[in-house]
Amino acid sequence: MRWEEIQERAARMVGFLIRKERVGIDGNPEKPGKEELLGIEKFKDSNVIYENLSQREQYDYRRAFLKLSRRNRIRKTLRYSAAAAVAAIFIGGALFAGYEYLWSPSIGGDLVADYSNIKPVEKKARLILADGMEVDIKAVGEAVIEQNGKKINIGAQGVNYQEDSRDSGSGKVATAKKNIYNTLEIPRGGEYSLTLADGTKVWMNADSKLKYPISFLEDRRVVYLEGEAYFEVAKDASKPFIVSTTSGDISVLGTQFNVKNYAEDKTIYTTLVEGSVLFRGTTNRETILAPGQQIIFSPEYGTQELKQVNVNNFISWKDNLFQFEELSLEDIMKTLSRWYDVTVSYDKEELKQLQFSGNLDKYSNIESFLKLFEVGARIEFKVDKKHIHISSSKWSITKNVK
User: Fold this and answer.
1) Backbone conformation region of residue 335, classed left if phi is above 0, alpha if psi is from -120 to 50, else beta
2) How far is residue 19's CA from residue 91's CA, in Å, rounded to a whole number?
3) CA triple 45-37-380, angle to 5 deg
4) 188-218 per-position pLDDT tens digit
5) For 244-263, what is the mean pLDDT?
6) Dihedral sign computed on CA atoms, order 316, 318, 322, 327
7) At residue 14, does pLDDT exceed 90?
8) Which pTM does this prediction carry?
9) Could you tell me the domains of the chain?
10) Could you read off the pLDDT of 358-374 as tens digits, one per residue?
């Protein structure tokens, strides 16, 4: 790994634990002091991190973290302080810099976790053609499939149905008068993208499915989504583009937006980046979204909420990041479980509601994520093959340190 890449990743991981505010002794929000702000700036420089990494064997990890924890009074709502970020850097060693991760048993507990069965998300999908034929995208690599006179290009950049201008006029014309639908399925632990016949680009997240026509022959461009996908819709005023889900439909002419509709969530989230979309849920109530807005609809209760959001928190996954703001541990682990294809359980229900803010590299080893949570949040992850159990940490940060 090049040092420039190490620097970038180190700086990103520092940003993971820097909170927006901290809580004073009286329980009221308190702005970081000048000294603390200078400390944050210092450790944004990954050269400083690199210089200190060489001293990790001489560093008393637990003593240092206990001092930092007591000084900053980390509370159970878990908004991290800058000092906790620095502690995580040195306790974790050179984890995010691409070095082997070393962990102090006194912090991590007695169980030595085996992460070898848990792999980061990768490019993989299953293409199901209209006639039932199945294609393992990862296995075929680069390929061209011909279906009803149309060429389907499969490669590292995704599945592409858009007609190459060089092929126009070749004499091969689809004979179908109605739409012929294919389905692209993304398994847990996978991701993939595709370009539809009209030029619309779709990024698909793990554990998702999209049913779509190989050519748009009708007066509407309709696709059917289960799971999560990000759309950049090609403009065509004569043919509205519709994303249909079990919870509702999103209608557009040309725009960029994200739709998250996993069955386990029992809620559909539609987040608009550019343009304008119309959302109509199962209650048939219609709502028009403006850029930067998100509508949350629950088909179970028929309720919906329209609010202004930081769209990056909901679309960063397509750019290989996991960005979140005051998100519950339960929701974070749901995302990680899809990306890494693992199951998750909790020792106590209240652990699910712990809240975190930060951003993480999507392709990092899952151990990278879990160890950071362990250090700052006093929780422990026990890994058994592809199952993760979360419990309260056995060690206390209130112990007296001389």
Assistant:
1) alpha
2) 19
3) 75
4) 999 999 999 999 999 999 999 999 999 999 9
5) 94
6) positive
7) no
8) 0.70
9) 3-118+316-392 (3.55.50.30), 122-315 (2.60.120.1440)
10) 888 888 888 877 887 88
